[in-house]
Amino acid sequence: MGFTVEQFIKLLHSKEEIQEWLPGIKKLSNEARRVFVAFNNHYRGQAVQNARMLRELLSI
Hints:
Layout: H1 5-9, H2 15-31, H3 46-58
């Protein structure tokens, strides 16, 4: 999967963007005991917001 520089450094993802990742995450979870998703963080703490959105969307 390729990313543009703008996409790569974007620190706060929308709910819609994170929803696009769900099929891949769920597929991996069927193939592995654990799946880790990491978000790029900085002083605004946007990775925490993204992780909370993901957790909500996965209903975990």
